[in-house]
Structure formats: structure tokens, C-alpha cells
Fold TBC16 protein.
Amino acid sequence: MTCSTSSASSLDTSAQFQENNGQTQSTRWDEQQKVFALEQVCGVFRVDLGQMRSLRLFFSDEACTCGQLVVASRESQYKIFHFHHGGLDKLSEVFQQWKYCTETHLKDQQLTDEKTCMQFSIRRPKLPSSETHPEENTYKRLDVSAWLHHLNGSGQVEEEYKLQKAIFFGGIDISIRGEVWPFLLHYYSYESTSEEREALRLQKRKEYFEIQEKRLSMTPDEQKDFWRKVQFTVDKDVVRTDRSNQFFRGENNPNVETMRRILLNYAAFNPTIGYSQGMSDLVAPLLAEVLDESDTFWCFVGLMQNTIFISSPRDEDMEKQLMYLRELLRLMHPRFYQHLSSLGEDGLQMLFCHRWILLCFKREFPEAEALRMWEACWAHYQTDYFHLFICVAIVVIYGDDVIEQQLPTDQMLLHFSNLAMHMNGELVLRKARSLLYQFHLLPRIPCSLHDLCKLCGTGMWDSGFIPAVECSGHHPESESCPYGGLAEVSSPKPGSEGKRGLKTRDVFAFRK
């Protein structure tokens, strides 16, 4: 009986345990489902700080209260907390007191303690005065009043260089972008009068509709070929371009159809280039600001013809840009360049920045900040390649993780991709202007960067000083430097008299 009772009791206990265990598992399952639902619906997520690789705080306001907390796991998975209404400064204080957080001030510090692999750093939206352009904050945004001061009684821009400089530093007020952008994009000449511009608009509108009529008059075979090479891709792209923008929002929005016509007509106008993905990302902001279909078309033509800052469909164009960027990184951020070199050819291809260049930073920053960058580049102040200085600025400000953690190529791409829309565009612009200023002060430049300022005309060295060109020694198709650069003679070693070579100089040292 006792044994039986004991067995019954044991059986009851076992059954109760199984029931409780089942309830526990069910409860855990319910909790997991709730967490999953919160992640999907509200963007809520959990992070195991014991498994993280690094913490980064990016402040977005000058008071340093708002911004993002970026948590990176050891598997390069990123979670981002947004602080829109303050509080990030309080969290920063907590992390600074946490003994497992090692703030990475010293770039070359080797962290040997396993627990201190959880690195911690803060990025504030200000640059020290030593790292800013001396003319920073001297120009306000170009508004209607300032714009009219640049025009004479006939409507001509009196001093083109001063206007470009004002736009480079201050940008353009949104209310007059539609009027000023056509000048920057070479649709209007700076010397043209108001009457001449109106006559040009009428002439160009006629030409535009002639281009459209020619496209619509293609033979059936031509239409079939055009649909296969161009229209099929355009039709897919325009319906998903900038649809969050009020100008393109909603079903059957006529502005989407206008953008489609502009792109199709451009492909017919310039069949050599045709259409490549990314062009819709460039046309959309132009149309939203310029508004008129014909004017937007010709502004886009000017963008593609007269600026280097474009969505280039040719591999050789991209390779030239990457070559310049590699050289700039070698001069301005040698530690990052050394890391790229250590990764071999894959690293030097810099896949992480291809989208920056091809889409003109449009996917990396909110539209307001991206358009400010466009205007600074279109100003062609002191260089035709200011977008490459922006690329360097992004690397300088946000690339510490890559060096400190020796990220391979794929994780480096993931690192910068996860920063998209979470970087401070104004901070990047300020840093880029500072880097251009430092480049401007060099007494010598490598011949590999000789063409960096070839098209902008007066302005790169506007003080009358022109730097010497130093041969970098990489000219396989020529015995001498095609730019007239001279290779400095280094101190001869025994048995090496007469040999010429380059020696490293502090002249190419840049403030980070």
C-alpha cells in the first residue's frame, strides 16, 4: 500500500512536473512569439551585450543628446537604437562607467583582455577648430535676397566664382533650388540674361518634344529592341523611386509618369549611354525641385555631360574615380589605406564605396543632407572631385572599426552599409571641406592626382600659388612622367649611385 501510495504519489509528481514543464515551455514559446511580433511590428529587439563586439554612439545634434546607438555583434550583425528626443547623453554616461567598456581613444592600443574586446566610442557632431576649414560658418544658406545680389539688372550672374563659393559653404535655400540648379548643371549660362534664358527655354522645350516624338515614332522592331534594352528596366525602377517623397507618393501619380518619360527620352536622345539603374535616383530630385518636364530633362543632360559626379555606366570611369580615391586615402588616411592594401586586390577595389559614387550618396544620407552634398559638388569650387573628399571624410569619421578590428572585405562592406541613413551629413561635409583645404595647402602633389582639379578652372590655387608635381613612378606606358613630375633623388646607398626614387615626406601628412 505504502509502496503503491508512493508509486501513485511519484506518478502524480511526475505528471505534475511534466504539466508544469509543458506550461513553462509554452510560456517561453509565447514570450518568444511576443518578442518576434514586437520586432516585426514595432521594431523592438533584444541585444545580448555579452555577445557584442563594439558599441558606437553617434550624436546628431550639437547639444549631443540625440542620435544613434549602434551595437555590433561578433558576427557583424548590427542593431541600431534611435534617440530622437534626447537621452543618448545619459546612456553615454552609463557606458562610460561600465567596466567592460574600453573607450578606444588610442588608435594603436592593443586590447589583450578578452572582456575588453567590447569597444566603446563616441562620435560627436563637431570638429575641433584645427580640423575645420578656416572659412567655415562665414557663409549663410543662399536665399532669395542673397541670390538677387549675385545678379545684375539684366539677370546675369556677375561673379560666378563668388556664387560657387557661397553655394559650396552654405548651400541653397529650397525655395530657389529650381532657379539656381539649372546654372550649376550648365543648362543656363552664367552670362545669360533673363530674356536669353526664357528664349532658351522655349527653344529647348521644342527640341525636347521633338526627341519624344522621334522615340514614339520608332518602327515595331526598334520599339521591341528599345523595350528590351531600356524601357523594361525604366518601368521597374520609376515605380519604386522616392515613393516616400510627397511629390511622387500615391497611386497613379502623374509625376512618376513624367519621370518615366524623361528617362525614356534621355535614352533615345543619348543611345550610347542609354539607361542604367540609378539614373532614376538622380532624375527624381531634379524633377521635384525644377518641376518643369523639359527643364528637368535638360538639367539631367547637363548633369550627365558636364559633371563628373554622375551615375556612370562605364567601368573605366569608375576605375578612374577609385584610383583617385585610393591615392587620396593614401595621403589623408594612411592607416586605412594600409589596411586596404593588406587585404590585397579585393580590399583595394573598395566595394563599400561604389554605391556612394554611383548614386551620389543618395542612399547613405537623408535626402536633405544628400542634396546639400550634391550642391557642394556641383559648385566645382577648387576641385571637380569634391565627392571623393566626401568619401574620404566618411572613412575618416566612421572607419575606425574597420582598422581596430581588422575587418575583412565582406565585413567592411557590411559595416558601411549598416551606417547608411545613420551618419551625420553636416559633419561629413565639414570634414570634407577641411580635407580639401589641407590638400590645397600641399606644396607638392603626386602626379597621380594631377587631374583632380583639371576642369574647375580658376580657384583650386586661387592665391596664385601652384604646387609642384611629384612623379609617383607608375607610368608603364611612358618612360617619363606625362605630367612633367619630377622624381626626387633619395640619399644614395653604396652601389646604387645614379638610381632615382621617391622618399616618404611629412608634406603628405594630414590631420585626421
Remarks:
- The beta strands are 52-59, 67-73, 78-83, 102-103, 119-123, 444-446, 468-470.
- The domain at 186-306 is CATH 1.10.8.270 (Helicase, Ruva Protein; domain 3).
- The two ends are 86 Å apart (CA to CA).
